[in-house]
Each structure stands twice: as C-alpha cells, then as structure tokens.
Write a structure and sequence with these properties.
Elements (H helix, E strand, L loop, with lengths): L1 H10 L4 H5 L5 H8 L7 H10 L4 H8 L6 H11 L3 H18 L2 H18 L6 H12 L6 H10 L5 H13 L1 H6 L2 H20 L3 H11 L9 H18 L3 H13 L3 H11 L3 H7 L1
Length: 283
C-alpha cells in the first residue's frame, strides 16, 4: 500500500516535501513510502487528500480488498469532518464491544472515539473502558509500531493518569524498542512526545515533567535532529509553564521556519497558539 502511494504521488509530480507539508516530516513520509515505518490513521487520510484521492479510491488502486463497512464509514466520516457520523460510529463500536468483550473491538471503538474527540472535544470513552485499555497496554512487554500506533492514536481520550502509566511502560521497554530498530525507536520517542504534550495540555505538569525527565536522559544521534528539536521544544514548554515567555517560544518557531522545518514550526505553534492567526500575528 505504501509503495502505491509513492507511485501515485510521483504520477502527479507531487514532491515528498509538498506531500508532507504540515502533516509529517519528509523523512517520516519517505520511510513510510518505502515500508520502513508506520503512519497514524489521521495522517494517512490527510496524505491521501494531498494526492487528491479518497481512501476508497486509494484502496481500489492498491488492489487491496475493501475494508469492512465500519472502517469505510469511519474513513469517510473523518475525511468529511462529519461529527454526527463519527459520534454514531463511536456509539456503534462501543455497543459492539459491550456485546463481544473482545479487545480488538475496544481498540477500534477507542480509535472512533479519538477521531470524534478531535472534532468535538467530547470524550465518549467511559472511565471503565479507559481502564480496560490501560490494563491491556500496561501489560505489554513487546512494544512494536502497531501497539505504539494504537496508544498514540487514542492518547487524547485517555485520562492523564493512564497516559502517564502507559508512557512509563513504554519507557521501561525502551531498550527492547531500540533493539527492534531505529524506526521503531524513533516512533516510540515521538509517541512519548505526544503523550507529554497531551499532559501539558491537560495541565498535568507533574506527569509531563516525569516523562520529560526521562527523555532528557536519552542520547540521540545527530541524524535524529527532529528528536533533538522536539525534546528542546518540550523543555521550553515546561519552562513556559513555570515562567511564561511567548517571545522565546516564537523565536524558536521562527527559527524552524527559517531552516525550512515548516511542519515542525506549524505543529509547535499550534500547541502554544491554538488559533493559528494569533501565531501568524506574533511572528
């Protein structure tokens, strides 16, 4: 499937930079296109929009079997930003889990709930179901990209306590993750970045700082400049909480734009300045 995306992108003379702009890094897209990494569901849908295809069209062109009806409906609802449909799909998925009690159904329901939350800021995932997800994720001893992707996708519908507990589990297995390869390690670290950011946004600075303290003990290679920059920004975020200084944050974001890291600049700017126009004014 990844290779099909690459072929379709090139057929339209869309460069890696153009496709990745404000969605993901060029290096991440390149790795995904070449089957060397995972991509979040939301980002895949955005990337398909960038090459002018719907998910259904892409699956057909990839020669893959069509997904089940629920998956197709979920993709369509997210692509069209249909809150009502996403709410309905989440309710349906949760009801299916209540009947089946299968973890795979709970995982799917959590993904639906996460996408709905992204648009509505309403969390339909009950505390009891969050606790079940916590139990599932906190007992994992093999953290590959599939499990990391699940955690990363549903972070925003988990409580701060659960985000921290699962993050701690990922941290505990970082040696194993690193042994699994550079791409898996990269994916794990950026997932921990997302977890820390979610905790900062939830005003749970104690848990966020604990994750950041661990990240600060890690040594990144020079080729992992995005990890180095990401960690630096998280430290600035922690400093901003203790002593707000918008100009210092703006200076960092402006520097990223100057060196062509527009996707990082846009992402970091949206964290501090949810209204993008406000960030533009300050720059």
């Amino acid at each position: 499937m990844n290779f099909t995306f690459k072929k379709l992108r090139k057929m339209q003379n869309i460069t890696l930079s153009q496709a990745a702009n404000n969605i993901c890094s060029v290096s991440m897209l390149s790795r995904w296109e070449n089957g060397q990494g995972k991509m979040d569901f939301e980002k895949v849908v955005e990337l398909l929009e960038r090459i002018n295809l719907t998910p259904a069209e892409f699956l057909a062109l990839s020669g893959l079997n069509q997904p089940d009806d629920l998956s197709q409906d979920l993709e369509k609802a997210w692509l069209t930003k249909d809150q009502a449909k996403l709410q309905q799909l989440t309710t349906t998925a949760l009801a299916k889990f209540q009947t089946s009690q299968k973890l795979i159904d709970l995982n799917y329901a959590a993904i639906c709930a996460s996408l709905y939350y992204n648009l509505s800021r309403k969390n339909l995932l009950s505390i009891s179901n969050q606790n079940l997800l916590n139990k599932e994720l906190s007992h994992l001893s093999v953290w590959g990209q599939e499990n990391l992707s699940l955690f990363r996708t549903i972070i925003n519908v988990l409580s701060p306590r659960i985000i921290y507990q699962v993050s701690y589990q990922v941290i505990e297995y970082l040696d194993f993750i690193q042994a699994a390869g550079h791409d898996t390690f990269y994916f794990a670290i950026t997932t921990l970045f997302e977890a820390a950011i979610a905790l900062f946004k939830a005003n749970n600075f104690k848990y966020a700082q604990k994750i950041l303290d661990k990240l600060n003990t890690l040594t990144f290679k020079e080729r992992d400049m995005q990890l180095i920059i990401g960690r630096h920004f998280l430290n600035q975020l922690a400093e901003y909480h203790n002593q707000p200084n918008e100009q210092k944050i703006i200076k960092t974001i402006s520097f990223l734009r100057e060196i062509g890291a527009n996707h990082l600049a846009h992402y970091f700017g949206s964290i501090i300045f949810p209204v993008d126009s406000l960030f533009e004014l300050n720059c």
